[in-house]
Amino acid sequence: MKCKPNPDTVFPVPNFSTVTYIRPTVKSKNIVVGDFSYFSDVDFEKHVTHHYDFYGDKLIIGKFCQIAAGVEFVMNGANHQMNAASTFPFYIFEGWEQEIPSTDVFSFKGDTVVGNDVWIGQNATILPGVHIGDGAIIGASSVVASDVEPYSIVAGNPAKQLRKRFDSELIAILLELKWWELPIEQINALIPTLTSSDLDAVKEQLRLLLKKG
What we know:
CATH class of the largest domain: Mainly Beta
CATH topology of the largest domain: UDP N-Acetylglucosamine Acyltransferase, domain 1
Mean pLDDT: 94
Number of strands: 15
Strand order of the largest sheet: 1-3-6-9-12-14-15
Strand content: 15-25%
Structural class: alpha/beta
CATH architecture of the largest domain: 3 Solenoid
């Protein structure tokens, strides 16, 4: 009998130590990651930069996300004050007499939020305060500076939407179903549907599942 998927496993791929489930590795209280989201590397927190406690901003990532090697989440601490004569952050360095400014003097963007089942390609950069919708795909080496709609594909610097992954009907069905919230046994049973490229059949099967409740 196969073992049940365990979201607390750090290295979930047998005999492969460069893919990690993120949630069990995170120590920061300001990084929240859902079950089964993985990083194609180790030490995910090193890729969350400029994340200072005094800002209080959070990085929130949903379930079943796929984050490639080299991805960087740039948090609000990277911002400098631009509405003053100097942009130099004196308050960070010892010996300079400047108190930590309130966040309203910066371009404070709030929390960075990544939905569920999002694929972020290698070396992409996610800038502060961006919200990425469920099922989105971020192209490799993209710089994401604005929000990304669910089930859309974006790429470039700055990242622009190339197209939606599916038609509006299938996107609505997937957003209503929220398959990532289902019990593991149900997700396992759904894998043939979730991985099928026959999208008309997928629509029909998921419609039936929604009707059953």
